[in-house]
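User: Quick sanity check before I run a bigger batch. Here is a single chain. Can you write out its predicted 3D structure?
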Amino acid sequence: MDMTNQDYGNLVNAHSKPSPLGKNLLWAFLTGGVICTIGQGLSQFYQSQGADSEQAGMLVSVTLIFAAALFTGLGWFDKLAKHAGAGTLVPITGFANAMVSPALEFKSEGLITGTAAKLFTVAGPVLVFGISASVFYGVILVLLQIA
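Assistant: Done. Predicted structure follows.
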């Protein structure tokens, strides 16, 4: 059966049930809000324990990354993401999940060639882009200060 891309798209749209957009938006908003509220609560807790604002921010980041990685390893993060959708993509927890998921997927290939190699599938491009962008912006800043 020969179909054009448009015919195929029409066929898929005719047979797929509509997505509950309002419900999905609400779940994403609430889940992201809860994650951010937990982060704020952790920040206040760490500050009450004597950390200054900068140290508390670092401790919150480490805690959220550890929790997201742990929950991904236990399979809880995927269950939450199934219901919460984009709300779990709050940058720090979403990045931790994106780092751990490929490593878990390829753990059967061994510690080095599986887990460790796949751990940097996402981190590599992020680090390259981040470092490249910081160098680029640094050069622009230096040029603007010279001019």
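Residues 95 and 121 are 12 Å apart (CA to CA).

User: Great, the batch can go ahead then.
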